[in-house]
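INFO  loader      accepted 1 record
INFO  loader      residues=77
INFO  predictor   begin
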Amino acid sequence: MALTQEDGILIHAKALSSRFKKGAAKEAEGYALKLLNSGDNEGHAVWLKVSEQIKKLRKDIKEYKKDDKNIKDKNNS
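INFO  predictor   done
INFO  writer      dumping tokens
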């Protein structure tokens, strides 16, 4: 099975999130800047997408934790 660019972006976003936690998006942005400075505009754009995916994943996790806390609070009432 061939992976799409979107698959690769998600894989890298998850890996960076696991490794760098809250600093993951900044890490991806730093790599994007490196690529831009070396003249790799396409790579730059892809790594900015990785950064955006990381932010989305972190937002989803925060919402999940908030929902989970609300359910636990309701059950304890």
